[in-house]
């Protein structure tokens, strides 16, 4: 018999039988019970090397019993099972000191692996934290894909490990980052988010590290950077794949040395922040293209976490839809619900915009339709409309450059919400337009700079300076 005695508690006799057989075949001694009272008696008498218990027991909730177990036997590993497969269940299990959490149904091989790992690890008192459970769940979904995310998040709550969240746009990367902060040990500190794609390239370093008065034109006073704002808390670096190389180098230095200097400053400033990064791009491809530092990637990718697109967890669509309907009802819009056919139609949709697209659809439905019960025909109509409108707007051959720029600037301003973009917008926009304009002229003239200058109506020396300043590659035609 392998060293290790397992105590199993579950009020379902069939589950106890399956666990007894699987653990016995693995070489463990097993004792099982259908109530918490017997389990507590065994534990308090010093029996068992590991506990496997369901959360909901007929006489006591396992979460209420866990603190007593950890008090009398702090080194006893407890694995919690539950059919209440939510993020908050996983978080509570971690908070109460459970070694691991398994959502039902689970794979027996995975359970055996967890048991073996728990019994082989050095025994030490696990970290725990107090605090009341939040009333609402930050994440919604009971699919297998989301269960695995909940388990990983629960394990990460009491650590400061750097996390890299990857996933398509609209999958909820910032929600996950906020959950890591709000339920982690840094929750009393600030959560500071910065979107790399929304900040001009030449201002990213100032945004991250702050700047001193007079550091550059327009720096009329000292400015605090995001690192300083997030001190003691969490810094969320969204769209990290859009960070320019110069800023990547400085960020790497901060991660290596734990200190930074402001733009224009000389005194190193110690930093204590948890870094959570996110991207909707494949950073390994960017590394191959020379657009992202490989050493920075490995510094950020300590714990990789992939958020699945909504089409990979279609079974979560009904729960998400109900969640959004309740949300918009609390905001003052009329109460609505979906009939069975409407739910099935939503589950079949591909959701290119992921959870964000579903939320927007729910808001439209509540605002535009007087019916309390929404049918598949209504859903079909709205989905068809949302799919065709962007294509018509983007592919319109009659759209002028002015209209295109206006549409782009509208989207750009919307990224800042109630705030305004950083100063210097006029010159940044002109620079953004200048590079593709010169590139198009050079392509049209097959790299002939004299003809390109004439086409653009600028001096040839001016064009050469622009090409050099903007680092535009000129490919001349081969005759």
UniProtKB/TrEMBL annotation:
Which PROSITE patterns does this entry report, sorted A to Z? Answer: RESPONSE_REGULATORY, SIGMA54_INTERACT_1, SIGMA54_INTERACT_2, SIGMA54_INTERACT_3, SIGMA54_INTERACT_4
Q: What is this protein called?
A: DNA-binding transcriptional regulator NtrC
The reply to whether Cytoplasm figures as a keyword in the UniProt entry is: yes
Coiled coil (residue ranges): none
The taxonomic lineage of its organism, from the top, reads:
Bacteria, Pseudomonadati, Pseudomonadota, Alphaproteobacteria, Hyphomicrobiales
Domain Response regulatory, chain residue ranges per copy = 5-119
Per the UniProt entry, what species is this protein from, by scientific name? Answer: Labrys okinawensis
Q: Where in the cell is it found?
A: Cytoplasm
Record function comment: Member of the two-component regulatory system NtrB/NtrC, which controls expression of the nitrogen-regulated (ntr) genes in response to nitrogen limitation. Phosphorylated NtrC binds directly to DNA and stimulates the formation of open promoter-sigma54-RNA polymerase complexes.
Q: Name positions with the PTM 4-aspartylphosphate.
A: 54
Question: What are the BP-aspect GO terms?
Answer: regulation of DNA-templated transcription; regulation of nitrogen utilization
Q: Name one Pfam family in it.
A: Sigma54_activat
Which cellular component terms (GO) are annotated to the entry? cytoplasm
Q: Which domain of life is it from?
A: Bacteria
Per UniProt, residues of the Sigma-54 factor interaction domain are 139-367
Entries under Gene3D superfamilies matching the protein: 1.10.8.60, 3.40.50.2300, Homeodomain-like, P-loop containing nucleotide triphosphate hydrolases
User: Which GO-annotated molecular functions does the record name?
Assistant: ATP binding; phosphorelay response regulator activity; sequence-specific DNA binding
Keyword annotations: Activator, ATP-binding, Cytoplasm, DNA-binding, Nitrogen fixation, Nucleotide-binding, Phosphoprotein, Repressor, Transcription, Transcription regulation, Two-component regulatory system
């Amino acid at each position: 018999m392998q060293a290790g005695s397992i105590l199993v508690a579950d009020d379902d006799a069939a589950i106890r039988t399956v666990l007894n057989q699987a653990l016995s075949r693995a070489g463990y001694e097993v004792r099982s019970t259908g109530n918490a009272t017997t389990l507590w008696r065994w534990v308090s008498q010093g029996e068992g090397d590991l506990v496997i218990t369901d959360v909901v027991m007929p006489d006591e909730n396992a979460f209420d019993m866990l603190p007593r177990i950890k008090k009398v036997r702090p080194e006893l590993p407890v694995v919690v099972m539950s059919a209440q497969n939510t993020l908050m269940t996983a978080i509570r299990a971690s908070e109460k000191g459970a070694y691991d959490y398994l959502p039902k149904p689970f794979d027996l091989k995975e359970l055996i692996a967890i048991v073996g790992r728990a019994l082989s690890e050095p025994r030490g008192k696990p970290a725990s934290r107090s605090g009341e459970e939040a009333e609402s769940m930050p994440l919604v979904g009971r699919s297998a894909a989301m269960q695995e995310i909940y388990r990983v998040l629960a394990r990460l709550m009491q650590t400061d490990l750097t996390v890299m969240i990857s996933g398509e746009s609209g999958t909820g990367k910032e929600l996950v980052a906020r959950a890591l902060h709000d339920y982690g040990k840094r929750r009393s500190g600030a959560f500071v988010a910065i979107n790399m794609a929304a900040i001009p390239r030449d201002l990213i370093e100032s945004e991250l590290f702050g700047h001193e008065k007079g550091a550059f034109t327009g720096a009329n006073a000292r400015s605090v950077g995001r690192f300083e704002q997030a001190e003691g808390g969490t810094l969320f670096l969204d769209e990290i794949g859009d960070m320019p190389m110069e800023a990547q180098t400085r960020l790497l230095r901060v991660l290596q040395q734990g200190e930074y200097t402001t733009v224009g400053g000389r005194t190193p400033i110690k930093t204590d922040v948890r870094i959570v990064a996110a991207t909707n791009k494949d950073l390994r491809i960017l590394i191959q293209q020379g657009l992202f530092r490989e050493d920075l990637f490995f510094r950020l990718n300590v714990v990789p976490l992939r958020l699945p697109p909504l089409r990979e967890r279609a079974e979560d669509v009904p729960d998400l839809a109900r969640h959004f309907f309740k949300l918009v009802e609390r905001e003052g819009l009329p109460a609505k619900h979906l009939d069975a056919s409407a739910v099935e139609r939503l589950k079949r949709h591909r959701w290119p915009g992921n959870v964000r697209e579903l939320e927007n659809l729910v808001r439209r439905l509540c605002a535009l339709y007087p019916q309390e019960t929404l049918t598949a025909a209504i859903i079909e109509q709205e989905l068809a409309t949302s799919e065709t409108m962007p294509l018509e707007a983007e592919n319109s051959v009659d759209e002028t450059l002015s209209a295109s720029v206006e549409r782009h600037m509208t989207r750009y301003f919307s990224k800042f919400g109630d705030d305004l973009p950083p100063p210097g917008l006029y010159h940044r926009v002109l620079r953004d337009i200048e590079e593709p304009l010169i590139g198009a002229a050079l392509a049209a003239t097959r790299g002939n700079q004299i003809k390109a200058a004439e086409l653009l109506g600028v001096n040839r020396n001016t064009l050469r300076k622009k090409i050099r300043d903007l680092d535009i590659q000129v490919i001349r035609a081969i005759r």
